[in-house]
Amino acid sequence: MEQIEPERMKVFVTGETGQVVKALIKLADQDRLDVYTAGRPWLDLSELTDDTKCEHLSSMIEDISPDVIVNAAAYTNVDKAQEEGDMAAAVNASGAGAVAMVARKLGLPIIQISTDYVFDGSKSAEIFDEDNPEYSDYDAEDIADIKANVDDGTYKEGDLTNPKSVYGQTKLEGEKLVAYVNPCHVILRTSWVYSETGNNFLKTMLRVGAEREEVGVVDDQFGAPTHADAIAAGIVQIVKNLVESPENEELYGVFHMTCRGTTSWHGFAEAIFKASSLAGGPNPKLNAITTEEYPLPAPRPVNSRLNCEKIARVHNVRLPAWEDLIMKTVVKVLG
User: Fold this and answer.
1) E strand segments, the chain
2) Structure pTM?
3) Exactly one of 75, 117, 155, 167 is catalytic; which is it?
4) What is the pLDDT of residue 5?
5) How many Å apart are CA 124 and CA 151, to the nearest integer?
6) Each residue of 97-108: pLDDT tens digit?
7) What's the CATH class of domain 9-119+155-200+224-260+304-320?
8) Is position 167 annotated as part of the catalytic site?
């Protein structure tokens, strides 16, 4: 019997040089996926307040006839955004909303990439007190149920947002606009994105490590380093789900998607230099420092840990452990 080749999916992605965009392009041939991209100067999200430019974008997307639009373009310079708030808002907020409106007019779902920086980082884990007198009459099953529901301090999708930086505020405004103008939205919050391309912490550490004998890295901020390849793979799975079950309302909404596990920036740097040493690259002495010892223009959340149970349950997306992709990335960067 002749096998029928499954139909290819089409995705239109804003941005051309970003880490996630390049990772999606790499996956295209493997996942019966056609990826169409548009970025600056042809597509500048900050200029989409112009109706003519929106119409041009709409016409081009309509000609491509994609199944899903992914808005991966963003103003991502966290510290510079403190001074360029208007530009950051034009791209991350109004620009994102304009792309979502185009998607809605064409009857298309939109996947909006967002960030852990929408939270202030103040959430902490609950502690189960076995000596609490309230539990004296509880049986073992009740106690086990209470223990299972103790909050581990990771942020869930419904937790209160309270960004501390201009960047985080503009990304949150973008989330709200996208959700308001297009009911068929998937907002993906992720964290600490890195890869062998673009500007990111891993590449900075390898560059600085080659220049210095000692490097100080913050050890009191916690999150999940997440490889762009893992994000792209998660997006592909979500696209498949949206194409196969477009009427399933559960597939839409806000989701957290990061690699598994938690570390500090210092722990991330340790893993980078351990891999670098094995690959014959730089391996400087690493010193743990506090946030106060390394002040930056934009405040960072102390706790960037995101709970990813919802996306695993709804979209069957489970990213690998954050350590798993370090070695291969270091080797690629070192060349």
Assistant:
1) 9-14, 33-38, 68-71, 110-115, 185-190, 193-194, 214-218, 222-223, 226-227, 253-256, 263-264, 285-289
2) 0.92
3) 167
4) 52
5) 8
6) 999 999 999 999
7) alpha beta
8) yes
